[in-house]
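The record is passed on directly below:
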Amino acid sequence: MGDHVDRVLRQWAAERPDLAAAPMGVVGRVQRASRLLERGLTENFARHGLQLWEFDILGTLRRSGPPYRLTAGALSASSMVTSGAITNRIDRLVARGLVTRETDPGNRRSVVITLTESGWTAVEDVLEHHVSHEERALSCLNADEQRELARLLRKLLIGLGDVPGGDAVE
């Protein structure tokens, strides 16, 4: 049984047999998998009253450990969005009462974002559902295949420059 990318590669082979299109297969599959996974995540979070980006920020604060507070810059770097995007997102989370924003008493030029009790509850309410959803999404792979895929994707991401402290991805 083939996938959508197999059809695309067959078409290229027919039209351009001289083209070594195998990399298109890998990149195309990674892109399609990303879109399909994101669609499923978006639907799952919506059932819990959250958007994907909201969970990303709230989860980043939650996993930072007590006191569940990060500077806006650290939050931006950890949640993989640009500093411009984080400001708007923080504004929206503050309006929903899920986080607070305060000037850092230790550095008046810095802003500190803190998870509120409502934000904590929102993360905790969806977290186990989120993990279960991801388990179902990956259930077509056995445990060894999942570990191997994770290893290969990590190697690819590092090769593409995705390392801690690197540039944020929107």
Summary: Residues 5 and 29 are 7 Å apart (CA to CA). The chain has seven helices and three strands. The first strand starts at residue 69 and ends at 71. The mean pLDDT is 93.
